[in-house]
Amino acid sequence: MSERKKVRVGVISDTHLDGFDDQLKSVIMRQFADADLILHAGDLVDLAVLEIFSPKEVKAVCGNMDNRRVREKLPEQLIFEVQGFKFGLMHGWGSPWGIEEKILARLGDVDCVVYGHTHKPSNYKKDKVLFFNPGSAAQRRFNSSRTLGILEIDKEITGRIIYI
Predict the structure, then answer these.
(1) How far apart are CA 75 and CA 60, in angstroms?
(2) Cα(122)–Cα(116) distance, rounded to whole angstroms?
(3) Cα separation of 25 and 148, whole Å?
(4) CA distance 137 to 27
């Protein structure tokens, strides 16, 4: 019987950049070096931001601050599986109060909700669903720290917030 491979996922959101950023690229190269997949939970602002993650596989959604090109290219939500776990990826909208429940209602039955919008990191489990927000890697608007996250998928999904 073959051993199950642990999957490592780099998670980022709310980069709010107009293009490629060498400083963020340096952080990504260091923190996501061994990531198997990258998730961007929206508010890229410009598609050029996705070049920072090359050559890694990236799944991304648009957010409320993204330009027209981003909105035309990226969906508002994605549902996908990793290691048999169902993930929902969505930026979020409106007030941060109750945002997790609003997103979960829109995504449906998932094991992990990955979202952004609030700029505040979050990593907790409720009713067998992991709610994970990496915070903002570039903005300090609503939070005093810049953050991103790592999800590890093995027999369960665990998350970790990284302060940069």
Answers:
(1) 8
(2) 9
(3) 13
(4) 9
